[in-house]
Amino acid sequence: MNNEEKILSMLAQIQSDMSDMKAAQAEQGDRLSRLETKVDKLETSVGKLETKVGKIEDMQEELRTAVNRVALKQEQDVIPYVKLLDEDHADIRQKLPEKSQVEALEKDMRLVKTSVKNHAQRISALEKAN
Questions:
Q1: Domain ranges of the chain
Q2: Average of pLDDT values for 101-110?
Q3: Tens of pLDDT along 54-87?
Q4: Distance CA 103, CA 110 (A)
Q5: Residue pair 1/9 in contact by the 8 Å Cβ criterion
Q6: d(CA 68, CA 61)
């Protein structure tokens, strides 16, 4: 093979290699394009997530504020009222008669009712006799 043929053969090989490199470069360009598209989608998703997280943080702050208001209301209004009720309940329990006293009064009342009924019958009988 003479020099010209060798050069032509080398040029053909270089052209073939260049074609292969261009094809590989085009394939890499396509892959890069797909990766860029995916990155864009990820950035969009991250943006949406950041928005949602911001909303959740706002809602969390609103809940925290509401809980603080409820706790303050409970501390200022409810707890003192419950304490007053408890004190009143204790006072009422102290003033109530014992169960044995109530039972004794009920027994006495039954006796009084029976006695009144008997007296009423006797008075009625006496009135009829006169």
A1: 3-96, 98-130
A2: 91
A3: 999 999 999 999 999 999 999 999 888 888 888 8
A4: 11
A5: yes
A6: 10
The residue type of 10 is M
CA separation for the pair 70, 59 (Å, rounded): 16
Tokens of 84: 């007053």
Is the whole model's pTM more than 0.70, yes or no? no
Residue with tokens 């890499």: 28
- Per-residue burial over 104-121, b if 16 or more Cβ lie within 10 Å, else e, is eeeeeeeeeeeeeeeeee
- The amino acid that residue 70 corresponds to is V
Query: CA 5, CA 11: separation in Å to the nearest integer?
Result: 10
Give the chain as a 3 state SS string.
CCHHHHHHHHHHHHHHHHHHHHHHHHHHHHHHHHHHHHHHHHHHHHHHHHHHHHHHHHHHHHHHHHHHHHHHHHHHHHHHHHHHHHHHHHHHHHHCCCHHHHHHHHHHHHHHHHHHHHHHHHHHHHHHHC
Residue 44, classified by CB atoms within 10 Å of its CB into exposed (0-12), middle (13-18) or buried (19+), is exposed
Angle at 9 between CA 4 and CA 13, to 5 degrees: 145
